[in-house]
Write a structure and sequence with these properties.
- This is Beta-amyrin 11-oxidase-like.
- Belongs to the cytochrome P450 family.
- The protein is mainly α.
- It has a single domain, classed as Orthogonal Bundle (Cytochrome p450).
- It is 59% helix and 5% strand.
- The protein is globular and about 55 Å long.
């Protein structure tokens, strides 16, 4: 599977002003509804799970489209919960009762569901060849119609399923952790909360009476909240580490990294380096006032050709969640 081609296809629905602006209304409605439901619950909620559930619905919509039935969506979410724990399982054996065994069963069922969705999309596209370009909306559609220079299909069903599952984990699991820490930090820092609230109230005051819900223009006006998110991702980096293989012998100062060796970039160590960030343990959004990190000093989404394609979408998730959390005093 060609990484560059797959990356281009998968990243295209996740970046850019026009594309992200389309997601604002959808994410805004889901976040607002989710927070309202939490506020009515009499028992304490598990914040990480609840945020993860909202993000799962968002990312499934982006990957598979809005037409997925609610029953299918709920089934996928229930099955997917078996996959995460198996990634770090200390007993990766296919034996009944083990976490890994349950994950393999869930992976098979998810694959069957996604294959049915793919085949239905193929049939729809085949029946509507004249308007195919208009029908290609989500990432699955783009993978289905992708062809090489000879007109040959690039991805079979199994390849599409593998790609989608990988991106599903990256697009909902890790951002859920970041969003959870966002709620923790905004709750524990009263001065930060107050500054963020003043900004949000000003934006709401300036909103036209005819406008319903958030707009991407308003998102771009949230300067302080953006600094908060930058600081959040520095302090609680999504990517704990990045791994690269040396394709040639590399010489750095007095060190030699032989060809074939794996280099680990420990992101959190970089973000907590006092030579780069003064008082690194302190959560301080104001450090981002008129500050732009040098290359290699800020790596919450990795670096280089494998930079996370969903970086801006993740920031959008967190910003919209905080917007509602701050204004409604949840």
């Amino acid at each position: 599977m060609d990484h560059k081609t797959a990356y281009k296809i998968m990243a295209s629905p996740l970046n850019g002003y026009e594309i992200l602006s389309k997601y604002v209304t959808f994410i805004d409605k889901l976040m607002s509804k989710g927070l309202e439901e939490w506020s009515t619950m009499k028992e304490p909620i598990e914040l990480l799970s609840e945020i993860g559930s909202i993000l799962f619905k968002v990312i499934i919509s982006i990957f598979l489209g809005n037409e997925i039935p609610t029953t299918t969506l709920n089934k996928l979410e229930a099955l997917y919960k078996h996959l995460g724990p198996a990634i770090l399982s200390i007993l990766p054996y296919d034996l009944p009762g083990l976490t890994y065994h349950h994950a393999l069963k869930a992976r098979k069922e998810i694959g069957n569901i996604l294959e049915c969705v793919i085949e239905e999309k193929r049939r729809v596209l085949e029946r509507n060849k004249e308007t195919k370009d208009q029908l290609v909306q989500c990432q699955m559609d783009k993978l289905i119609v992708a062809i090489d220079e000879n007109g040959k299909r690039l991805y079979d069903n199994n390849a599409i399923i593998d790609l989608l599952l990988g991106l599903l984990h990256a697009g909902h699991h890790t951002p859920a952790y970041a969003a959870t820490w966002a709620v923790v930090q905004i709750s524990q820092n009263s001065h930060v909360f107050q500054k963020a609230k003043e900004e949000q109230e000003f934006i709401m005051k300036e909103r036209p009476s005819s406008q319903k819900g958030l707009s991407f223009k308003e998102i771009k006006q949230m300067k302080y909240l953006m600094k908060f998110v930058n600081e959040l991702l520095r302090r609680y980096a999504i990517a704990v580490a990045s791994f690269r293989e040396a394709t040639t012998n590399v010489y750095i100062n007095d060190y030699t990294i032989p060809k074939g060796w794996i280099v680990t970039i420990w992101t959190r160590a970089i973000h907590m380096d006092p030579q780069m960030y003064s008082n690194p343990q302190e959560f301080d959004p104001s450090r981002w006032d008129n500050y732009t990190p040098k290359p290699g000093e800020y790596l919450p989404f990795g670096i280089g050709s494998r930079f996370c394609p969903g970086s801006e979408l993740t920031k959008l998730y967190i910003t919209i969640l905080l917007h509602h959390f701050i204004l409604n005093n949840y």
